[in-house]
Design goal:
This protein is α+β, with helices and mostly antiparallel strands. The protein contains six helices and 19 strands. The strands form four sheets. Strands 8, 11, 12, 13, 14, 15, 16, 17, 18 and 19 form a ten-stranded antiparallel sheet that branches.
Length: about 325
Amino acid sequence: MKKSKSTIILFLSLFLIPLLMSQTKSFVIFREIEFPLERMAKIPKLNSKDQMFREYSYAVEDNYKNIVNKKPVDLFFFTYTVEDDSTLLEIASRCNITYDTIATINRMENITSSVKGKTLILPTAPGLFINKNQTDNALEVLLHEEYFDSITGGTTLYNIGKNQFFFLSDKKFSPTIRSYFLDATLSLPIERKKFWISSDFGRRKQPFTGEFQNHNGVDLAAPTGTPVHAIKDAVVKSAVKGNATFGNYIVLTHDNGKMTSLYAHLSKIDVEPGQRVRKGEVIGKVGQTGMATGPHLHFEIRQGGIALDPESKLRLK
């Protein structure tokens, strides 16, 4: 009986417990610190004449010294409401703190995220804030994939408002994440030399009924089987086959649902609902399904549910 118990204990210690700990961080105890938003000091102006901003600047300077001397940083937070047209990069420069730091604590997705009129949280030390929970925020997904497994019990968990963040002191975006964050441009749904515009955005005569109606996208004529690419990092909202109008089509959501793109009349769909795709990734093939007079891609961009002329976002011509 003693031998049997020893065997069970050995099995648990060598195999079962490590397996469970690899699947979840619930076994790891983190030091938690609460920082209620309403108790954070408010900076009226990012100006050296402002007393509160001077205090913030002194705290940041002290933490840079702590990092150089390999001492723990003394991290706390201020808030600042952006009233002018300052960009994230300009605010980061004035605060002498990395834009990576401000972006992650304020849950920005990319460099185009507007800050005007918003109240930003300004940490007093540089580093990355990794959301404890998995979200649909594209930047947080990338950060989660790259850093979450390296977070140990020695990492402090900061409870800020409704969010929980692990703080990785003095860390910066990796080259891949930095490239994603700074590259806010959209790629073409079909390589430039492989299509021509057969129908523009706006009012047109519907080829099947002869009636004038709004054409909410553009038609890009291309041979059947031509690869179709995601214009930006996205989540597949829907992948539908056999629709009477659009035939086989895909809808992607970008920037946490703020923008969608639609790709219709496909001969083949290469993605599934819920799947994450990267900018430029092949998601399907050009076809002639649904109401189509020839092989082409019907392509739409919408923001807030409103159809936009794709030419305003992409240089199609």
